[in-house]
TrEMBL record:
Residues 1-23 form the signal peptide. SUPFAM superfamilies: alpha/beta-Hydrolases. This is Alpha/beta hydrolase fold-5 domain-containing protein. Residues 120-284 form the Alpha/beta hydrolase fold-5 domain. The keyword Signal applies.
Amino acid sequence: MASTTSLGVTLTVLLVVITPSAVLPLYHHHRHHHHDGASVGVVEAQPLPVSSYSNGKGEPKYTSLPLPEALKAMPYACDDDCVSKLRFKAWEMQGNCTTCAFAWPATTTMANATTSDIMGIVLYNGAFVDPRSYSVLASKLASRGVNVIVPVFPNDLATDCNGMTLEAVTNAFFPNVTAWMVAGHSYGGVGASYAAAATLLCGTSPRVVALGVIGSYITKMLQCPVPVPNFEEDDHLHAAVITGNRDLSINLTNFVDNLNRLPVHTTFTSIIGGNHQQFGSYDPSGRSRLRDRPLIDGNATISRDAQLNATADALVRTLLRATKNNDISPRSLVDC
Ligand SMILES: *[C@@H]1O[C@H](CO)[C@@H](O)[C@H](O)[C@H]1NC(C)=O
Ligand SMILES: *[C@@H]1O[C@H](CO)[C@@H](O)[C@H](O)[C@H]1NC(C)=O
Ligand SMILES: *[C@@H]1O[C@H](CO)[C@@H](O)[C@H](O)[C@H]1NC(C)=O
Ligand SMILES: *[C@@H]1O[C@H](CO)[C@@H](O)[C@H](O)[C@H]1NC(C)=O
Ligand SMILES: *[C@@H]1O[C@H](CO)[C@@H](O)[C@H](O)[C@H]1NC(C)=O
Ligand SMILES: *[C@@H]1O[C@H](CO)[C@@H](O)[C@H](O)[C@H]1NC(C)=O
């Protein structure tokens, strides 16, 4: 079902799919005109004005709501009003909110972990996906021996340019974790890359040993005034890149163009039959409202539960590998 393959093999599988881009819905498309006036349909990334997707106080105009099983997998009952309050607080505190997150303590001890390693994963949501939609994946990770945090971001956009949210929630919920993975789905995968890069460059707390890029790739996050993360030279960080071969949301040109930003220790997992939306547990039916074109995703040929099991397995495998033979001394620090 899930196959971990070498880069070459994975790309062969992926490249046969021609896909549109939907990973970063904050880009809108401009039609450019040659001097002769002909529309050539060049696509250029532009930041959308906040008012087009938000009420300006951290509440998105549209978000994909969690499925019933996701509400059941929450650590405590949190209704729409409860999550709205967390978004507003996250917006007010601009990344400093230590309580704007949901947490799942590990329910077992992780197999094969050395006793000194207490592990955790911070999971960033896809753009305009209610963070509660990642509770099922979070509980699967917790049952594999990992502490999990899903932060709540303003507007349901996991933008964490300087890693401030990552630092706030990891210290608040699991101060004893010694090895963190920062992972994210779709837009959240980009957010996770920025947070990991900021943390690796600017401090030792939390200690990030691994990155998880789920249905996504490392690219420019328009709202971030810092360079695009590039881990090419990073010989300590491990990464898991997890794709579904029915995911028609990923722009494969961009996926391929950005592969060189990943660390040398990257494992690619292609989930055969998996699509984009099944990395979360949300109802995508209204997502076409986000942009003036239909929602694009492939039809999965495996169940959501199977896809989430495979995703959890791949993330945990990489986190474990990252803690083995990993030089835990702090990276050389720069002024931030
Ligand atoms: C993928 O993104 C590139 C660069 O933004 C764009 O030129 C191309 O048209 C996109 N491909 C699809 C299939 O949308
Ligand atoms: C967040 O914390 C930083 C660093 O402690 C501080 O400089 C900043 O003023 C705080 N921002 C808010 C909105 O509390
Ligand atoms: C733990 O180690 C055993 C034996 O080496 C191996 O079969 C198993 O797959 C490992 N488990 C994990 C989660 O890596
Ligand atoms: C963290 O470790 C300290 C010292 O070992 C212990 O007293 C404390 O209970 C632990 N905290 C948590 C949240 O596990
Ligand atoms: C998914 O399945 C529906 C219903 O069978 C079909 O209309 C649609 O074309 C399929 N989508 C793709 C991308 O194959
Ligand atoms: C996913 O994993 C759980 C727990 O191991 C298992 O009970 C369930 O059957 C798995 N789902 C699928 C579709 O394999």
